[in-house]
Structures are given as C-alpha cells and as structure tokens.
Specification:
Two copies of one chain form a homodimer. Chain A has two domains: 135 residues, Creatinase/prolidase N-terminal domain (Creatine Amidinohydrolase, Chain A, domain 1, 3-Layer(aba) Sandwich); 217 residues, Creatine Amidinohydrolase, CATH 3.90.230.10. In chain A, 34% of the residues lie in helices and 21% in strands. Chain A has ten helices and 19 strands. Chain A has 368 residues and is an alpha+beta fold. In chain A, the strands form six sheets. In chain A, strands 4-3-2-1-5-6 form a six-stranded mixed sheet, sandwiched between helices. Chains A, B: InterPro entries: Creatin/AminoP/Spt16_N, Creatinase/aminopeptidase-like, Creatinase_N, Pept_M24, Peptidase_M24B.
Chain lengths: 368, 368
C-alpha cells in the first residue's frame, strides 16, 4: 500500500505545481490518512517538491506511527503531545525555504491559520481548497475492496438482528447490539452512531435511539454502517413488527422502495449529480409527498461518512465511474412513523453491469 | 432553567459592551448550548444588545428545538437543513444594523469566516475569542448537580462490571458493556469512547480497546465517563486480575495512587493551575519515572470533556472555586503495562471541606 500513498502524494504535488505553489500543508484528518495511511491522531502532512514530512504527536502507540506504515520516502517529525502538529510542519516549511504554502482554509480555524502565518518564516500562505477531497472522490479498487468488507459487516450484523426477538426491546439496546455485532465481525467501529427508530420514530434519517420499546404493529427503521480500515458505508432498512403489516404500511414501504430503486437506477458515469435525487423525489411527489424529502437523496462515502459529491436536486456536477455513493430516500409521517431505505453503491458503467450494490440485505418488507 | 440561560446571555452582553462591539455570533456547539440549552445540532446564536436570535436547522425533531426550551426572550430563525446557520445569523446581523460583530475565530474555519464577512452587510467582524469558554470555567450548582449524576452513573457501571467475571473477555467487549451500562443507568451517552486496556495495554490514557482478552495476572485499566444533560465526567481505575498481585504491581499501583492523591490534595481556590501537576509529577519522579507523564495531570471538564483550565506544569492561572477538574496521573511501562487513576473533582475551599470528589469508586488495588 505504501506505493499507493506515494502515488497520491505525487498527484497532489502535480496539483501544487499547476497552481503555482511550492508546497502543501494538509491538516484535515481524512486527507492526511488518504495521503499517508496514518489513522486520525492530529497529524499534519507537509508536502514540498522534494520531501514529505508527517508531523505526529510523540505519544502514539507504536502500531499507529511507525515507518513500516509510512514507507521510506516520508519523514517523521515527532511533536510533543498537546501541541499543534500543523505549527511544527509550518515551521519546517520555513526552514525548508518554502515560498508559497497552500493550506486547507476549509479545515483551519481563523486562529490556527494566524498562528501558522506567525511561525512559517518567509512563507506566504495560499489556499489549497478541497484539492485532496477532489482526489478522493473516485476510489481505486483497494478502497472499494475495503468498502465491500465494511458493507458485508453491516449486512451480517443486520441479518443476525433480524433472527432475534425484537418485541419489547428498546431502541437503545438494539442500536448497541448492532454496534457490538459489527465490531465482533471485524469493524474498526460503527461508521456513525447506529440509529434505531420504532413506531412514530421510524422513517427518520438520524433518529437518536430512545428507551421506546418495539411493539407489535410498529414500523422499525435501522440505519447503520461499519467502518473498515477507515472506510465507511451506510445502509437503512425498514421492517414491520408482527404477523401482518397494515395496508398503509405496505403502501408506504412500496412507495419508498420504488423511489429508492429509481434513485439507484439513475446512477451512472456522466450522469448529473441531481438526477438520482430528482428520480427518487418524483416518485414520492407523484404519490402526494410534496414536501419530502428535505435532504439530498444521497452523497459520496468513503473515509468520511458524508463526502463529495452531494446528490441533491441542485447539484450540477457529473458522476464519475468508481464513485461510491449512498441513495436513501425516506418518508416520515409525523406521529405515525415512516420508511427509509438506503444503500451504498459504487457508480459503474452499464458495460460493467451498472451500479454495484454493496449493502445487499433484502429490501422486502419483512414482518418480524 | 431558561432564567439561568438568560442570565448567561446577559453576562455575554456585558462582555461585548465592555469590548466595544454591538453583538456576538456564537457558533461553537458547547457555547451555544451553554447560552441557550440547545443540544448540539449546528445552531448559531446571534446576541445583540436588544435581541437573542437562535438560527436552527429546520428539520430538528420537536423535542430538540421548541420555544419551551428557549424561553420567551429568544427568537428562532429556522434555516434549511444542509445550509450554515451561522450565515443566516450573520445576514440577520446585517439587517439588524449591527456595526461590530464579534465571532469565534477559534471555531470558524478561514473559509466560513470569509463567507460570513461576505453576507453580513455593513458589519465589521471582530474576534470574540474564548469569552464564552471563560464564562464556563466556574460552574453553578445546577451544572455541578448534573456532573454529580454523571459521576454516579459512571461509578454504578464500573461497580457492576467489577462484580462480573472478567477473565477471558476482550477489551472491546468490556468497553461496550460499560457503555451499555451507563446508558441503562440514564446517561445521554458515554462522554468519550470507553477505554479498557489489559496486560501490556494497561496504564495508557486513551488506549483503543482491542481483541486482547483479560488474563490471570493482568493489570486492567478502565477509563470511562458518562454524559448527563450534556455534562461529562472522566474517571480511571486500575485493577489486577487473579488472586494476588505481583510485588511490582502492588508497588506501581501504590506509587500512582500516591501521585494522584498528591494532585487531588493540591486543588484549592487561588492555587496555581500548575501545582496539582507538579505535586503528582514530583511523586512519580522521586520514584525514578523521570520522563512520565508527558500529559498534564488534568483539565477542566463540563460541557466538553476537556475544557479550560488545563492543569499542566506550565499553566500559570489560578484555580477558582467551583471549577470541576480531572486529576489523573499514570505510569505505563512499555511491554509490561501500568497504572492510571483518575477522578473528577470540584475545586472547593477548605471551609467547605476542600475538593469535592465526584467519582467515588474505590482506588484500592482490587484483585478481581
């Protein structure tokens, strides 16, 4: 893997050259990880034309620092814990006679930026913008392999839950059990707090689990994702508790299922980022849900659970091949509950079979 | 409680007047919560001489927004989800003819600050600095009551764990069980990821739990804290597994116990912030642990798990009455493990009995 990281750094160097700056200072944790493999620990990366220098806190356990992770072409600068690694990297830029240093203005606070300017002697600061985030949009096959494993873990945890007795258990307990199961199956951690909503809480996007207990006749919405080697996925399913769903439940589930399928099927290289959202939204609106959903139908996913691109009705970019995204519409009827169905998929051309579904748990309306 | 929030806002208004600015824009989540009671949701607070306006995402569940929480003297500005509430608040400042608006430069990124400047017409931006964090250092008795409950929850979870069988269980499982128990006992959530380290992982400050299983003869270090109504505590204990600790374990535990006690006993109103650290450090250094600990012995704690003041060897401020802090030295011997003992306490004068211990689990070297 250290070759892949070196290749990414080389691309960032080319970007810097093309932008007329000598060097980049990368502070955003997911970007540092993308360029070095270093897990989030407050590290900062200084990348000049000739050198790569990772400023790290000096109290990391050996398995998180270590040259074996970083490869031979990247130096380490150990910084006392509790001090800002970006300041150490900026000082180093001054010593290395960097003239123009691009920093991540969307990541640095105003105060931290001022401190960097204060210590980087003879250095002019420029804005790197979201250059690294842009590089991260299209994933390589190593990254997609990690996402596949993350999806398998989430699917396994969910399928085990479906085999257990749910009535009488609280949302909080079910959420904690799902988290534990994902970790048992090899996840680094849950990619985000597991959301379990039952009854009137079902169908919400990020419902915080409560002490409400699952009851006969409830809709139950589960939103979960595993994180594997830093890469996360997200999936949502809605089930019904008890023998037979009510007619309104069958109808609402079928509607959201159709909307989600329309969104998924709209994915493809060259397609406008707004198209999947509009496709899903049209299905919901035609059925009279005119003001939902408020959120974009999906977004990119990878080292961050919500990253570029955004798939909202006003997003005008074009989707690329090998971009993992979520597609997850939902309808929530206040006081009654609702349905949410979400998958993580990878954009692929039709010649390769179209969008690759990573989260494969059934989307049928199971009665549990 | 809405009176208490209003009184806090009035103090911030006085600070603004004294600093020669018309208004403040508060964006840091813990500061917004301190001034309004609003849980973290991306809200921003605009506070002018006459008005308080809370800009909130428009998709919050009713129990998290709502005027009942906010009191009558604070207006709400609902902002479409996925847009920045700070921009909406800054625009409002322009409409309200604010001339000088103090913003939190330590919270805003350079990019966001630039966007605020762009939308706040006719408004000059100034720096509010850490004025609200400064107000938060000394807690009122309502806040201390919440911290007491948070500490009780953590103590209960820990005492239940000590009654169960530990040998053969993994660090991850024990950590998840502690988290579940805290939530069962009424915590909002764990205040930070529970750390469980056994054997060579014991004694570390923020060890991420692994699949290592607890073995006979191990040191076991647990670092945990509950969050209750937004207020968190932190506590650490180290135990030994099996019938009888080895002599080196008894000796090291006794040493860290003495260092922690020295740190605790040094707390008092008017005492320099460096004194508890130096007191604990002296005990460890006299025993030959000359390079440990790298970290300050403690820090303030409340709406953030690590907030002002810092209790490090170079911190020169004076402690105040009613400041909750942690005191938690530790020694880790690479390859062998170590001991960490931490409490959350409230600084109180001797007339009131001295430091108030919130986390009361025994600090004896229990053999489990």
């Amino acid at each position: 893997m250290s070759d892949a990281y070196a290749a990414r750094r080389e691309r960032l160097r080319e970007h810097c050259s093309a932008s007329g700056v000598d060097a980049a200072l990368v502070t955003r944790a997911s970007n540092v990880r993308y360029l070095t493999g270093c897990p989030p620990c407050g590290a900062s990366l200084l990348l000049t034309r000739e050198r790569a220098l990772l400023a790290l806190p000096d109290d990391l356990p050996p398995e998180e620092g270590g040259e074996h992770l970083l490869g031979p072409d990247i130096g380490q600068l150990l910084v006392p814990a509790d001090t800002d690694t970006a300041l150490a990297a900026a000082e180093a830029a001054g010593r290395l006679k960097v003239l123009d240093l691009a920093v991540e203005e969307h990541d640095l606070t105003v105060r931290r930026h001022r401190a960097l300017a204060g210590v980087a002697e003879g250095v002019r600061l420029a804005d790197l913008g979201t250059a690294v985030e842009g590089m991260r949009v299209v994933k390589d096959e190593h990254e997609i392999a990690d996402l596949r494993i993350a999806a398998e873990i989430a699917d396994q945890a969910l399928s085990e839950l479906l085999e257990s007795i749910l009535v009488g258990r609280t949302e909080r307990h079910l959420a904690m059990e799902l988290e534990r199961r994902m970790i048992d199956h090899g996840a680094d951690r849950a990619a985000f707090p597991v959301s379990v909503g039952t009854g009137s809480h079902s169908g919400l996007e990020a419902h915080q689990p409560t002490d409400r207990r699952v009851e006969e006749g409830d809709f139950l919405t589960v939103v979960l994702g595993a994180c594997y080697r830093g890469y996360g996925v997200s999936t949502a399913r809605t089930f019904v508790i008890g023998a037979a769903p009510a007619p309104w439940q069958v109808e609402l589930h079928r509607l959201v299922f159709r909307a989600q399928r329309a969104g998924r099927e709209a994915l493809g290289p060259g397609v406008s980022e707004s198209v999947p959202d509009l496709a899903a939204r049209e299905v919901l609106q035609a059925a009279g849900h005119t003001d939902s959903p408020a959120h974009p139908v999906g977004h990119g996913i990878g080292l961050e659970i919500r990253e570029a691109p955004r798939l909202g009705p006003a997003d005008m970019g074009k989707l690329d091949n090998r971009v993992p995204v979520t597609v997850g519409p939902g309808v929530h009827l206040p006081g009654r509950g609702g349905v949410r169905i979400e998958d993580t998929l990878v954009v692929r051309p039709l010649e390769e079979g179209g969008p690759e579904l990573l989260t494969i748990t059934t989307k049928e309306l199971l009665a549990l």
